[in-house]
Design brief:
Length: 347
Amino acid sequence: MPIIPHSRPTLDQEEVNAVAAVLQSGQLAQGEEVLHFEKALASMIGVGGAVAVSSGTAALHLALLVLDIGEGDEVVIPSFVCPALLNAVRYVGAVPVPADINGETFNIDVRDLQRRLTGKTRAIIVPHMFGLPADIREIMALGIPVIEDCAQSLGSRYQGAPTGGFGVLSVFSFYATKVICTGEGGMITANDVQLLDRIRDLRDYDEKEDGRLRYNYKLTDMQAALGLVQLRKLPALIARRRAIARQYDEFLRENCLSIPVCPADREHIYYRYIIRTERLPEVLDAGRESGIAYRRPVFKPLHYYLGMTGYPESDRAFLGTLSIPIYPSLSDAEVKAILHHLQSILK
């Protein structure tokens, strides 16, 4: 096991007490805690409502279903992203259409996105990669329904407004190492009450009047209790991420290396801290030998899985970007150890 893992949750006795209280109540499955969690997140984002589900992938699946996207429809997604988006599009029988990324921000490139649009395009899924908001208003101006993927951006802001409040639907993930965690879990937010009602109907198959296909995508009260505590701590969690990022920025400047780009009209939460290096395999190996878990920020671009070409910035990012540890429970001593190690191999 690495001495310094790439990521880990930030938990203390408050989370333990919240989960223990649910266990003592006997109401373990979906109940009042889930309802409270939904209301708290919707209020924070500033939207009409939210529906908690079992994972971020489940959230993507249901979002596509309630937009009536299916066989033969095209959904544009960035290539440099995890396979959850690809899988969700395939779940509904639609055609995934990868777009290239902006080489500075790692978010979907608006110009390349426009080139991928056809008469069959029914939706665009827009992740805010690594905690940095994408060009969401420009993308919405294209007139195609947008699903915001906020799995890595909870708490970030674009032109003064929280991410998660722009798209027709927005999805969140609360996996164990996400911005806030419930172990596994997700959420869908929207202003459209009818869409939210349809999602609530689809997430649970029991005690229904008709036999249409539905799913077991519920969140538990144990997970929601954990999420509520984490959500209250969000400002402090983000503040710690930014404090660590400032130390990394200073190191990169001192060593004449480029720091991550953050346009002036948006606020980065640094879910991941990404640096470029032409010696990626060497740095990954050196980290393993030293007990520091560096990672590729994306395991493999989606166009590789699909056997496609024509994505130069996604290729460049895959071959030359490194994700270094950044999370609220990372200690100052661990940050110094990471910087010392990077200096020894990148100088």
